[in-house]
Fold Aminoglycoside phosphotransferase domain-containing protein.
Amino acid sequence: MNKIRKLLEPDFVVELFRKEVLPHYPMFKDISRVEIKTYKDLIWETTYHVVFRFNTYFIKATGEEIKVPIFCSAHSEESRENIYLALKYLRAAKFSTASIDIPHPLFYSEYFRATFYRGLRGENLLYYVKKKKFAMVTTIVVAAAKVFARLHTLPANSEANFNPLNSNIVTVIPGVDRILREVEARYHGKYHPDLQRIYYYFIVQEESFRQSGITLTLIHGDAHPENIIVTAPKRVGLIDFTDVCLSDPARDVGGFLQQLEYQILSKSKGELQADNLKKLFLDTYLAASGQELTSEFQARIDLYYNWTAIRSATYWLLKFGHNEERAEYLLNLVKQNLKM
């Protein structure tokens, strides 16, 4: 049996949490039970990539039960210790403020290659886009811009590079070469020439910017509407720290702008709303980070906007239940942007 399936056994999880989690909460005397929900359950014979939620019921001295959501992110081929270390670093750096929440790291298990953390409660930005609640979307977009600006201004050095492979386009997992091979094999070369030329352009452009001496900062690495959570009135949370690394802050900005636009256009067809919200996000980010929109910074944002679109395109080409129509829309958008 795949060892990760032990984490789907409630009795096993309760005993694990009594040992690893209960000491973090001296106000509780025991754990009575857990309810398990799977968000991602890719489990094969010996390998796995999973995200589980454990609604964990702690018992107070009075006998009252308190439910606490605890999450697990695990991957058999990629250690998830980087998530644990990134969250610990951010808490020590006081990234959380009166208006920003992040998950609370609990422990890392080398046996499961899993990080366990106390999660956040709330709906994400994409939820409000889907519901077409654009007054709320506007508020969240402003808050998100400030979150990323704060992240990018935190002190960071090489020790804070929690996922070095994620720092450069060419090595972001699973790697450009593997993406090109898999798309070529599945579609018999149909998309290969375009994707090969586009990725080559991205890699050369990124290296050129790096050679110019730009300052690398701590970035989230997966900035999109699903990772911004409304946790309370006037409070937002940032989640999913798998890709945190040292890189160009324009990557978070360009990536978020592309995903915000894509989700609004696909969920509500609001082109004008997308343009206005993108401008609002960028203006707020620049003001919060104390930057001006130079031509070079705009070019870097454009690079990562287009790269994010291509990442989404290859996702739609390679995922189970692929969608060539969505992939071709994004591929043609990037070709138009790059004048190819």
